[in-house]
Amino acid sequence: MAIRNLRYQGDPILNKRAKEVKDITPRIRQLIEDLLDTMYDNNGVGLAAPQVGILKRIVVIDIGEGPQVFVNPRIIATDGEQTGDEGCLSVPGKCGTVTRPNYVKAVAFDQEMNEFEIEGTELFARAMCHEFDHLDGHLYTEKVEGELREMTYVSEDDLEDEEA
Ligand code: ZN
Fold it and tell me: Which of 20, 81, 131, 160 is labelled catalytic?
């Protein structure tokens, strides 16, 4: 288990385009494990490799239904609209309202480099849009409607209650 250091808004690496992954090397395998560890350690629902300073097209998401790994993801269809609050581990303590598609269909590769197709709605669709944007150097703060707000404080105990 290895927790990597997060990069925060203002770090130029967060504005760069990440590169396609060609092969799943031992280093990439380690990176994927570390991304998952780092996401869970920070109570995040998603994390993209540039957020730990690695410009590779890799994303992990877990909205509470188990981990999903995306290598070289691509959105191939969207539908509808949802407007809601979003936060980011690279923009700590803040949240803001963002409109995203309510349905997203994507293709990506898994950690064995097998291609798969996946669909999601609501939070999962939002998480895919948010995380995949990181791979192109975009933060949700560019899309916020109105002001970026201070996140309401939620204690660890409350989070644990929710998950129980
Ligand atoms: Zn983010």
Answer: 131
Instruction: Output the average pLDDT for the chain.
Output: 94
Are the beta carbons of 99 and 83 closer than 8 angstroms? Answer: yes
Where in 4-90 does DSSP place strands (E)? 46-48, 58-61, 68-79, 82-88
Active site residue 142: no
User: Ligand 1 centre and the CA of 31: distance in Å?
Assistant: 17
Q: How far is the CA of 114 from the centre of ligand 1 (A)?
A: 25
Q: Which two tokens stand for residue 35?
A: 């991304």
pLDDT digits (tens, 9 = 90+) for 8-65: 999 999 999 999 999 999 999 999 999 999 999 999 999 999 999 999 999 999 999 9
Q: How far is the CA of 4 from the centre of ligand 1 (A)?
A: 15
CA of 44 to the centre of ligand 1 (A): 9
The model carries a pTM of: 0.92
Q: Do 15 and 55 touch, CB atoms closer than 8 A?
A: no
Contact 70, 60 (CB under 8 A): yes
Cβ 111 vs Cβ 24: under 8 Å: yes
> In this structure, is the dihedral angle defined by the CA atoms of residues 152, 158, 160 and 162, taken in order, positive or negative?
negative
